[in-house]
Structure to design on (242 residues):
């Protein structure tokens, strides 16, 4: 799916990954699930590109439904994979805390699980090598992605601001479609290590100059980034009956 002159999405509102496309090549932001590989190839082909045009993968965090085809790109095509230093171990298959699923609804939860299973979500290939990044880094990739530290969902969660795409990629710092309840709109994501810290981190988006907010789960969103933190807090309070 083409979202803009330099911006494409693969996957859907259940699980998504993104491509930033410039004359210098392609940057992949998150790698979805391993079964999204054919969609990556098809989207590249539709643009007149191939996997050889991919210059790097930037992971918003190290959870399995964002690792997808990242190791395949690294191992088979020499594509570097960038991840925050505090999530590097998680991306390599290290331990992660067990967190509460929170509220669920049977239908959306089953759809998420079935979709993930069809797309290879039960057979994660972890990274064996990563390039570690930190808050504020500008990466040497097409679009010159800027790393914004967003700890909370995981210790090394980041947002990725790409000015040429007029977009900020937020991974699971927030969601616009809760995979376990089906609820839509700006809200906290499930499976979050530290929910309160994640909400606090959303305040960092207020100063970002971008039109698109692109989550790992849910529809692309456009609006006032200064309002995102407040919207997410209200959604949390409503869900909790506060």
């Amino acid at each position: 799916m083409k979202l803009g002159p330099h911006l494409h999405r693969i996957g859907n509102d259940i699980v998504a990954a993104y491509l930033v496309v410039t004359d210098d090549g392609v940057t992949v932001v998150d790698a979805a699930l391993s079964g999204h590989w054919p969609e990556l190839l098809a989207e590249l082909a539709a643009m007149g590109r191939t996997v050889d045009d991919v210059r790097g993968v930037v992971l918003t965090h190290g959870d399995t439904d964002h690792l997808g085809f990242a190791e395949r790109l690294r191992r088979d095509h020499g594509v570097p994979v960038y991840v925050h230093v505090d999530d590097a171990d998680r991306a390599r298959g290290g331990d992660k805390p067990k967190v509460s699923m929170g509220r669920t609804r049977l239908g959306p939860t089953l759809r998420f699980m079935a979709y993930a299973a069809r797309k290879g979500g039960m057979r994660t290939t972890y990274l064996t090598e990563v390039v570690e990044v930190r808050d504020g880094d500008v990466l040497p990739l097409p679009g010159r992605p800027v790393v914004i530290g967003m700890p909370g969902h995981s210790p090394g969660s980041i947002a990725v601001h790409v000015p040429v795409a007029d977009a900020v990629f937020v991974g699971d710092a927030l969601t616009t479609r809760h995979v376990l309840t089906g609820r839509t709109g700006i809200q906290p994501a499930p499976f979050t290590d530290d929910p309160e810290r994640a909400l606090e981190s959303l305040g960092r988006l207020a100063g970002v100059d971008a039109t698109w907010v692109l989550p790992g789960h849910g529809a692309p969103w456009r609006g006032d980034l200064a309002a995102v933190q407040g919207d997410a807090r209200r959604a949390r309070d409503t869900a909790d009956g506060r």
